[in-house]
Write a structure and sequence with these properties.
Elements (H helix, E strand, L loop, with lengths): L3 H30 L3 H24 L19 H29 L3 H28 L10 E4 L5 E3 L16 E4 L1
Antiparallel strand pairs: 1-2, 1-3
Helix pairs in contact: 1-2, 1-3, 2-4, 3-4
Bound molecules: fe (ii) ion (FE2) (2 copies).
The site of one fe (ii) ion has 8 residues, from loops.
Length: about 180
């Protein structure tokens, strides 16, 4: 049994991450079609990180059955610059409002599994936001970004450019738990 408020937050976060995953896949296709292949790869890799978050949240939901879920989403972007801004806006909401609030409720309710799941997501979203901000500056000059291999921790969604660390700094998973997008 997960307490009602925390479980509602898990469902909402699952909804938000699921939508973010799909939006980033859509944005990846558009970036590739518009000659921004590295921005496309960045979106594909970060879409996978959001899938990891959605999976963690889903696994912590115990109640069975159908439920309506209200979750935040960003709509209406039409090109890669706007897609990156949509990414920045969505990540910012998660960092500033959603995950800090959900995390406090989970702590208050002593829901350890949910607390871990929210904390993992919050840490990764901070990195995603700054990667999108850096990418947008370059795309707004009409150029594709320079991008090394992107490594995503399959346990927590931690996101790194370059070599995977020996140990994930967020969840302590070993190097072989990272998935590479090169
Ligand atoms: Fe993210
Ligand atoms: Fe990790």
């Amino acid at each position: 049994m997960v307490k009602e408020m925390t479980e509602a937050n898990l469902r909402s976060a699952y909804g938000g991450e699921s939508q973010a995953h799909m939006r980033y896949m859509i944005f990846a296709e558009r970036a590739k079609a518009n000659n921004f292949p590295n921005v496309g790869r960045l979106f594909t890799a970060i879409a996978f990180a959001e899938q990891v978050h959605a999976t963690n949240h889903y696994r912590n939901i115990v109640s069975k059955g159908h439920a309506l879920v209200a979750s935040g989403g960003v709509f209406g972007s039409k090109n890669t610059s706007e897609d990156l801004q949509a990414g920045i806006d969505g990540e910012t909401f998660e960092i500033v409002e959603m995950y800090p609030a959900y995390l406090e409720v989970a702590k208050l309710q002593k829901e350890k599994g949910a607390e871990t799941s929210f904390r993992y997501a919050l840490e990764a979203e901070k990195i995603h936001k700054s990667m999108f901000e850096n990418a947008k500056k370059i795309v707004d000059q009409g150029k594709d970004i320079k991008l090394g291999p992107i490594q995503i921790c399959t346990v927590c969604g931690h996101t790194v450019e370059g070599e995977a660390p020996e140990k994930c700094p967020i969840c302590n998973a070993p190097k072989n738990k990272f998935k590479t997008f090169a």
